Amino acid sequence: YLYFRDKEDILGAVSAAVLRQILEEGYMKMGAGRTDSFTENLIRLADAALDYLQQNRGVLEILRRGGRMPKLSREDPLWRSLMRDLKQSEGGELAGKSEEEVFRILYCLLTMGGSVAAAAILRGEPEPIEKIKPALYGIIRAALAG
Questions:
Q1: 101-113: per-residue pLDDT in tens?
Q2: Handedness of CA 115, 120, 121, 124 (dihedral sign)
């Protein structure tokens, strides 16, 4: 208890660190199949993360119980990489939006999509994740279009 207030604080810190690692690994896997579309690259990242969580349901249960998102700042290497990818993408995705607006959009997609994915993976609600993925990716495409 020198660094954390209680068990929930420890679980939250571990959850955030694990989720961050999953996102970083997804980002690296995304790089192997990178396209000129930021949106499609982001969907590849999401797909890699969801595949990991589907194969590691215990990790997902811990993340769900921890209830914390990774904290990203504008100096964070993962955030900087995503912004660089966005600026280099073709098609004008999120054109005219400030970095703050992009941050809010991506944060919302991550939290909402994460909740939907967790329910689909852990409980099959409203359907198994394989049936939910097309709808989830359609929402990502629509949100990033505009």
A1: 888 888 888 888 8
A2: positive
Q: Report the alpha-carbon distance of residue 52 to residue 30 in Å, rounded.
A: 13
Closest CA to 144 of 10, 45, 7: 45
Tokens 């689909």 sit on residue: 120
The full length of the chain comes to: 146
Cis peptide bond prior to 77, omega within 30° of 0: no
Which parts of the chain register pLDDT below 50? Answer: none
SS3 sequence of 21-66: HHHHHHHHHHHHCCCCCHHHHHHHHHHHHHHHHHHCHHHHHHHHHH
